[in-house]
Amino acid sequence: MTATRKYTLKMTAMYLMSGALFVLAAAGTFAARRYLVSFEILMYIAIGIFWGLAVLFGLFLLPMFFRRTVIYLSSKEITVHTGLFFLRRIHMRMSAVQYVTLVTLPFSELSGFNFIAVRALGGSLVLPFLNKVDCDEIISALHGEIAGRG
Q: What CATH topology corresponds to 72-148?
């Protein structure tokens, strides 16, 4: 691998998580209406908190995280740029990589719930929410690096 390759997160995972947040807010609203009807003020406070958190996370924080997270893979290092309010960069040298673990969930080809855990002496790095094709490409590059040292 000679050039630096850029990987972004799969947006389908964000849409699924945002949808799940709104379903949880609806379930919380139903539970509050059912069990807190005699405590009307508490019921409305609970409903407001459920929907406020769903809107905050589902419409603002999750999309911001998914837009700002980028993974770079070169022949020398793996770099993850991420963060919500404060951006941070995480670097790992390719020569330090000891082993790689691929974690997938059911229907991960469609949902984007593919994760790569990269382990090195004294540290680890998680590459989250990748396309299946990107996962296979990163795994083969990392395995090639590990096998080339042996």
A: PH-domain like (2.30.29)
